[in-house]
Amino acid sequence: MRAGEPVRRTDLLERATLVINRSWRPVHVTTVRRALCMVFREAARIVAPDTLATFTFLEWIRRPPPEDELAIRSPSVRLAAPEVILLLHFDRVPCHEAPFTRRNLFLRDDFTCQYCGRRCNTDLLSVDHVLPRSRGGKTSWENCVLACVGCNARKANHTPKEVGLRLLRPPVRPRWTPYLNLRPSQRMESWARFAPEHKRRTASP
Ligand SMILES: [Zn+2]
């Protein structure tokens, strides 16, 4: 209706949707767009996070969101973006380790300098070896952290202690979770009830 609506609709289709298996355990995070396709193909049902009622695609269409709520629109249909979908045929829980990649490191450290705590854009952050490579430091989850330009320059080829820097938390290999590919800010509040055993991977030991 208003100018700018198509952009918002696109954003909504790219928003994250939690995928839970037949035993109602989180296994994956996908986009609203892919979630709707899975529901349309009858591989999954949409779960209303408040009531836990499940819906087929047709049932979901017949349940449009309130007018003031952000919705996906086509000329004939208005529907709410699913926050959670339930797989109908899958009951395993994937079990793998979080691979050490640059992208995963940025996610683990949440785009935050691990020395001064400043959140920065990607171009202002670099991967710092806590024990410098020149002194035998490995490129691993346990020896790499994000550092901002300032802290990185200050640290150079020293250990944090030598230049009076302290790590916010010891760097560790993150546990694999269905949320691994998401920044904490992309998670929906409604997901909490589907993962009572899930501890935030940023929790300090
Ligand atoms: Zn810093």
Describe this structure in words.
There is one protein chain. The protein is α+β, with helices and mostly antiparallel strands. The chain contains 5 helices and 9 strands, in the order H-E-E-H-E-E-H-E-E-E-H-E-E-H. It folds into 2 domains: 83 residues, no CATH class; 62 residues, DNA Binding (I), subunit A (Orthogonal Bundle), CATH 1.10.30.50. A hairpin with a 5-residue loop joins strand 1 and strand 2. Bound molecules: zinc ion.
Number of separate structural domains: 2
Largest sheet: 5 strands, mixed
Rg, rounded, reads 21 Å
Distance between the termini: 50 Å
- Please provide the count of β strands: 9
Structural class: alpha+beta
How do the strands of the widest beta sheet line up side by side?
2-1-7-3-4
Order of helices and strands, N to C? HEEHEEHEEEHEEH
Beta-strand fraction estimate:
15-25%
Distinct helical segment count? 5
Helix content: 10-25%
The unreliable regions are 1-7, 198-205
Q: What is the mean pLDDT?
A: 85
- The outline comes out as elongated
The ligands bound in this entry are:
zinc ion
Question: How would the blueprint of this fold be written?
Answer:
Layout: H1 5-13, E1 16-20, E2 26-31, H2 32-40, E3 44-47, E4 54-55, H3 57-61, E5 72-73, E6 78-79, E7 84-87, H4 102-108, E8 125-129, E9 144-148, H5 149-155
Parallel strand pairs: 1-7
Antiparallel strand pairs: 1-2, 3-4, 3-7, 5-6, 8-9
The structure holds zinc ion.
Zinc ion (ZN) binds next to strand 9 and helix 5.
